[in-house]
Amino acid sequence: MSEYLEASQVQIETAPDGTLRAILPDRCGLGVQALRAMPLSDENQYIVLRDGKDKELGILETLDGMDARGVELIQIALRKRYFLPKILKINAINERFNSADWDVETDRGRINIQTKAIHEAVIELGGGRILLRDNEENRYEIPNLDELDEISRAKFAGRV
């Protein structure tokens, strides 16, 4: 059974080895990892804290009430764990032998993404939001398909 933690009662700090440490009222967790319980729908709520032995320390329903440095450390850890480049433009999509090669512009620069067949790689999340998973399980996001330029939308629509 998961234990809900009160954010004001949890102190997060950087340990000497560079990992996170969580100081709780009744125990201390070393090598702490922060995970989102619902990474696609509620990315700022229900943060799970696990220690270095992958044992759950508890769940923070929200970070409200935690000191600013602790919030910053958790947000940095979550950004690293859930690295999700945003696709801003689709230059080309080439399908061949049940796979696809995507030439796209992201918020991190231009890249080529290799995926399985498009129908296997594209996940529609609703509201125009699209998640693309490549062959190495990296994820890329189109925050809102309707906000892409007309040519990008046409290339996407012609393939999906």
List the helices and strands and how they pair.
Blueprint: E1 4-5, E2 11-14, E3 20-23, E4 28-36, E5 47-50, E6 56-60, H1 68-81, E7 87-96, E8 99-106, E9 109-116, H2 118-121, E10 122-126, E11 129-133, E12 139-142, H3 150-157
Describe the structure concisely.
With 160 residues, the chain is α+β, with helices and mostly antiparallel strands.
Key words describing this protein structure:
single chain; 160 residues; alpha+beta; 2 domains; three-stranded antiparallel beta sheet; 3 helices; elongated
What does this structure look like?
With 160 residues, the chain is an alpha+beta fold. It has 2 domains: 4-81; 87-157, no CATH class. 16% of the residues lie in helices and 42% in strands. It is built from 3 helices and 12 strands; from the N terminus they run E-E-E-E-E-E-H-E-E-E-H-E-E-E-H. The strands form 3 sheets. A 6-stranded mixed β-sheet has the order 1-6-5-4-3-2. Strands 7-8-9 form a 3-stranded antiparallel β-sheet. It starts with a strand and ends with a helix. 19% of the residues are buried.
